[in-house]
Amino acid sequence: MTDYRPVDAVTRVEIEQLIAEMLYRLDHNRADTTWELYTEDGVSVGPMGDMDREAMKAWGARRAQQTDVVGRHFIGGVRLVRDGDEVEGTVQYLTFRDTNEPQTQPASVGEFRERYRKVDGRWLFARREIVPVFGGRAAAAHAARVAGQEGPAR
Question: Is the entire prediction scored with pTM above 0.70?
Fold first, then answer.
């Protein structure tokens, strides 16, 4: 038995654009706008804590003020499956941050486990879980920096 229920090409492109927009905003000092990419009841779960849209708005405002931290996300292995009116996705990621030592080593490697819902003709995140597989300590240190606490970047 398989749970493979592929999405159509248009849906795939629209969701991949949503993912790319999220990462662009994170990587280009626009974290204060990422909450806009979530449904009204959307949540984010992971090293930054469990956040609803209001908490994401506050987190994003703090992160956008940290203009001295440069990061870049790279993704691949996007797997999307239809689940009724929603789509489930798994996205493999690499994150690099200039606060990591060495900077050429990924700060975090893992996957995003996501659920997408179409609202008013636009795909949005209903749930986004960030699951570091490697580099969990660096992800936790980054979360502490954003929260205003210092921690080692390793």
Answer: yes
